[in-house]
Every structure is written in C-alpha cells, then in structure tokens.
C-alpha cells in the first residue's frame, strides 16, 4: 500500500533498500488532463541512518508528490510535464 513519504516514520524505513521510480504524467496543453504516463526506475537507495532519511525527504520536495510502498520496498516520485501535445478531442473544440 502506498503512503505519502512525509507520513512514513524513519523507523519504518530504517535498514531497508528501496527502488526509486520517477512517474511523469504528460499533460495536454489545453485541458491539463493526462495524455500518458511514463515510469522510469532511477536508482536504488539504502536508508541506513537518519541522514539518509532526511536527504530523501529533502529530495522529495522538488516533486509534485512522493509516495512509499513499505511492503514492496519502492519509492515513487511523481511529476508532470507539458510536452506540447494536445488531445485530438481538444483540437476539435478549438
């Protein structure tokens, strides 16, 4: 189960290795709805001490949303992008 990274305590993550995945939602330039989603595994990290945990929380601030799945040892950073694409239905409305 995914939870917001900021709500997970250090003790829950201590001495674990996590796979970090970046999820990018590409948005329509006109309606701001999602066109598609891309996932990319960025790296694996080991939370060995409090400093590693604090660094992770600091890095998470640049993303729209950060989630952690403790059971599957995964961290998800969510961001969005405007690639200049538009839904075909949005073009028809113009």
Quick structural summary:
22% of the residues lie in helices and 45% in strands.
What report would you give on this structure?
- It is a single chain.
- With 94 residues, this protein is α+β, with helices and mostly antiparallel strands.
- It has one domain (2-93).
- Helix content is 22%, strand content 45%.
- The chain is built from 3 helices and 5 strands; from the N terminus they run βαββαββα.
- The longest helix has 11 residues, at 50-60.
- The radius of gyration is 16 Å and the shape is elongated.
Order of helices and strands: EHEEHEEH
Shape: elongated
Structural class: alpha+beta
Largest sheet: 5 strands, mixed
Spatial strand order of the main sheet: 1-4-5-2-3
Model regions low in confidence, pLDDT < 50 over at least 5 residues:
none
What are the main properties of this structure?
94 residues; single chain; alpha+beta; five-stranded mixed beta sheet
Topology:
Elements: E1 2-4, H1 10-13, E2 16-27, E3 34-47, H2 50-60, E4 65-69, E5 74-81, H3 88-93
Parallel strand pairs: 2-5
Antiparallel strand pairs: 1-4, 2-3, 4-5
